[in-house]
Amino acid sequence: MRALVIDHSAPTHLSMAEISDPIPAPDEALVKVAAVSLNRGEVKGATSPETPDGTVIGWDAAGVVVKAAADGSGPAEGTRVVTLGAAAGWAELRAVPAAMLGQVPEDADLGAMSTLPVAGLSALHVLRRAGQLLGRRVMITGASGGVGRFAIQLAARAGAEVVAISGNPAQADGLRALGAHEVHTDPATVERPVFTVLDNIGGQQLVDAFAALEAHGTLFSVGRASETDAVLPPEALLGTEGRHDRSIRTFFLLSDPATDFSADLTWLAAEVAAGRLDPGTSWRGPWARHDEAVQTLLGRRLHGKAVLDIN
């Protein structure tokens, strides 16, 4: 089969290659991949010299089951699915355990479905950890990115007053259309405290977002798009204006390998297919154009998700 593999001699450290088909474990379905979506973390990781040539990366993929799991778990042959994994998604075939795939409505666009696993699940699971959001202020940094866009929509549907942070003022109208009540370019300019923060940026934005938390508030560190460290001064840790007992929690979607994501992926797929969630696909093309997609993502010219069609 064909796959996108790590190739450190290529400009984007990726190239097309012929590799062996995956051999599914008894609890894995074999999926013919139709589309994949890109995440900044995996694309950036591809440039690391520690990742060997020939490695197949890719977290998000959608397609059709061509061989059901031998142990009877998961969907039957012919079922349309969206899949998650720590690697091996950017290929014509992918072996996936039942816990890592969700069923997709028959009329759904598989390209749109491929945007869901990392971005959609991360937003959903962080907001669940935040607790009851009805009537509470929720700040989302990196709001125009994949996780940010899903988080705005889900938080607004949960009854939160959403404060979106985006460095690009041109994104403001679009973020309000998704459900943001306020849009700022910098968390330091937010006047009223927030109950929780979903931070995708790190660095100084994390520091400023933490300062915006109300007493007993929590900041969830989800991403580090700034690629800089956050240094919290002592006065920030001590609290100001009576805002004490605030906390920072880290988040990694695949931290627990026993987590079953199938129900959440199926639900997210149905919401996108019904038009109740906008995946925000802003770049799409055949996987032969993977270099263009990667350069757009790493060059910070992408707002939303990039999708490659496997053809």
Brief overview:
The protein is an alpha/beta fold and about 300 residues long. It has helices spanning about 40-45, 110-115, 115-130, 145-155, 170-180, 205-210, 235-240, 260-275, 290-300; strands at about 1-5, 15-20, 30-35, 60-65, 80-85, 95, 100-105, 135-140, 160-165, 180-185, 195-200, 215-220, 245-250, 280-285, 305-310. It holds the Pfam family ADH_zinc_N.
Task: Please give a handful of descriptors for the protein shown.
single chain, 311 residues, alpha/beta, Quinone Oxidoreductase, Chain A, domain 1, Rossmann fold, seven-stranded mixed sheet, six-stranded parallel sheet, 15 strands, 26% helix, globular, NADP, NAD(P)-bd_dom_sf, oxidoreductase, GroES-like_sf, Zinc-binding dehydrogenase
